[in-house]
Hints:
Elements: E1 12-16, H1 21-32, E2 36-41, H2 44-56, E3 61-65, H3 71-85, E4 90-93, H4 109-137, E5 140-145, H5 149-152, H6 159-178, E6 184-191, H7 215-226, E7 237-240
Parallel strand pairs: 1-2, 1-4, 2-3, 4-5, 5-6, 6-7
Helix pairs in contact: 1-2, 1-7, 3-4, 4-6
Amino acid sequence: MPKTPDYFAGKTILITGAASGIGRATALIFAREGANVVCADINEQGARDTAAAVNDAGSQALALHADVTSRRDVDDMVQRAVAAFGAVHFLFNSAGAAIRRAKFLEIDDALIEKTFALNVNGTFYAMQAVLPHMLKNKHGVIVNMASMAHRRGGPGSSVHYAAAKGAVVSMTMGVAREFATQGIRALSISPGPIKTPFQAAAASSPELIQRFLEPEEIGELVLFMCSDACPFMTADTVYANGGGGWR
Length: 247
């Protein structure tokens, strides 16, 4: 939670992948705090449904169709967000997926290209689009979705996804360090298994408590990372894995 009451009231967050899962949960949490929420997703109807839920919670929302693998779409998304609310204070790059599972020798060009386009290029385009605006305002927080896979390597099922999320972690760190003196913070989250349509069962050590993270748990973490409760926190990836992330 923020230190300042009503810290998020009237501020704006742009969320990619807002139609479902972590993105939708985060949108509703920021709505609870009075923030304006830009709900962007390739699933336009899903984005509209999330925006309607934000409005029902008493906050202002804008639903946008955006394919984050398209730089043109992402640039337009940021321009429309700024036009609607005057500023974008926070960016949460939630859009991402492994596309499909595959053993290493079964990963073909199409799979790795699609995986990097969605997870790496999508994050890259959004940060490049929003940073000039944030720099102009001398304030901004960017939170990117990574994964515990980047520490595990994804053997046997998702080396392509682990490599993409490793790139997200490195890119987040680089952006955070480059713009740290200009009012910008950038962080990533590396969670364990989350209860979303994307996530399949996770294998953890039997001696550890095994459960899926709820999307709302990640949303509350995004809220904290964007708040004034941690102004010196940047360049890090936060691990949320229930104690099983290193197995």
